[in-house]
Design goal:
Bacteriocin As-48, Chain A, Ubiquitin-like (UB roll), two-stranded antiparallel ribbon
């Protein structure tokens, strides 16, 4: 006889019994077998129906994912056909281009200042063709370049490609003319047969050994520590002389032919500035970063 009681129907159990009912022992055993099978189906890792519930605490900004951000090696500086029409009514001269590049970095209001300082250094290194040094600075800043294109390119339809992202995911857009000279640059105007953009007098005097306190400022001793060997060199430098002059002095004193960048408190010194206008303090040690 088949038991058709409500309990058996709910459990999906058909039992042949000798009478009109099912014993309590049979029902208990059947229930236990049924529940055990259900638990096995839920907990068995090999079961195709068992799935772990997705975590609701995961974040797109976890440290693991930050380490996995897309990144490609930097490519060479792009070719720029024209001076930017939104900034230049006529083609720029080299001196105007230099002023516009300085203005670009000085007027950034979004992003982090230390990142923009790093972007400026990368721009200068790419301009000189030193991809290895540019990549070193970019990596040290914690930034990534998903496409390998440091400069942002604008395409038809307003789409952008390229650029650099910091570790917070913020995009830093650098126009192509900041890195590459536009091909339509015009020559500097001549004044009495002299190029108004010729080398500054203090650099010429420094090369000739001419020492004039009014021109080069107060003489100070500057100690620089070379990154490739850990030793120090000490040179004499005028506070009104540009950092580029100091770089040459350090190279000559250390006998280094490779490119050198001077840094103080983690910030690269801008070579066009006089030493006295930088953050360096007399008696402190500069870091001389040797590339190549």
């Amino acid at each position: 006889m088949v038991c058709a009681s409500p309990t058996c129907k709910r459990q999906g159990i058909l039992t042949v019994v000798k009478g009109c009912g099912l014993s309590r022992e049979s029902r208990a055993a059947a229930t236990e077998d049924h529940d055990g099978a259900a638990r096995h189906a839920t907990l068995d890792p090999s079961s195709t129906t068992a799935r772990a519930a997705p975590s609701r605490t995961s974040s797109a900004n976890t440290p693991t994912e930050l380490l996995d951000r897309p990144n490609q090696p930097l490519r060479a500086a792009p070719t720029v056909k024209h001076s930017p029409p939104q900034l230049a009514l006529t083609p720029w001269t080299p001196s105007e281009l230099a002023r516009q590049r300085e203005a670009f970095f000085e007027t950034r209001v979004s992003g982090r200042p230390e990142m923009w300082a790093a972007m400026k250094q990368v721009s200068e290194l790419l301009r000189s063709g030193d991809l290895s040094a540019a990549q070193t600075i970019l990596d040290a800043s914690g930034a990534t370049c998903p496409t390998g294109k440091f400069c942002v390119e604008r395409r038809r339809g307003g789409q952008k490609k390229g650029g650099v992202y910091d570790d917070k995911g913020l995009l830093y857009e650098i126009p192509g003319w900041v890195v590459s000279d536009p091909e339509d640059l015009v020559a500097e105007p001549q004044i009495e047969g002299k190029d108004i953009n010729e080398e500054s007098e203090d650099e010429i005097d420094a090369e000739k050994g001419v020492v004039c306190e009014e021109k080069i400022g107060e003489m100070v001793s500057v100690r620089a520590r070379l990154s490739d060997r850990g030793t120090d060199v000490v040179v004499e430098m005028g506070t009104n002389q540009k950092v580029s002059v100091l770089v040459k002095k350090v190279q000559e004193k250390a006998g280094v032919e490779q490119k050198i960048k001077l840094a103080y408190m983690g910030k690269i010194l801008e070579e066009h500035k006089p030493l006295g206008q930088t953050s360096w303090k007399e008696g402190h040690i500069l870091n001389a970063l040797v590339f190549g």
